[in-house]
């Protein structure tokens, strides 16, 4: 899942476009890991032996955490898209990429 170039220390990748792409790969990997965590959360059928208020409280807590993690994964997807866009811009304008 993780590109070997993404494991290099920041700033060692060469140009700005490569560094931005490296960061995009890291963010994409983190998003996939969050997706895996969401999938690993207990489903309603996993807690069917719980009864009454305890089951409802547990299910509510799991649902809230699942929603929170999905929002964070969506936010990370937006960050990845921004990084890839910035990498494309930097690749096409390597001289002015660092200028404000």
Structural commentary:
With 100 residues, the protein is mostly helical. Helices cover 66% and strands 0% of the residues. It has two helices and no strands. It has helices at residues 16-40, 52-92. α1 (16-40) runs antiparallel to α2 (52-92). The longest helix is centred in the C-terminal third of the chain and has 41 residues, at 52-92. The protein is rod-shaped. The two termini are 33 Å apart. The model has no long low-confidence stretch (mean pLDDT 85).
Total count of strands: 0
- Name the beta content range: under 5%
- Gyration radius over CA: 20 Å
Derived from helix and strand composition plus strand pairing, the structural class reads mainly alpha
How many strands, what sense, and barrel or not for the largest sheet? Answer: none
What is the general shape? rod-shaped
Mean pLDDT: 85
**What is the H/E string?**
HH
Helix content: 55-70%
Count of discrete alpha- or pi-helical segments spanning 4 or more residues: 2
Unreliable residue runs: none
Distance from N terminus to C terminus (CA atoms, Å) equals 33 Å
In short:
This protein is mainly α. It has two helices and no strands.
Indicate the topology.
Blueprint: H1 16-40, H2 52-92
Helix pairs in contact: 1-2
Features:
single chain; 66% helix; mainly alpha; 100 residues
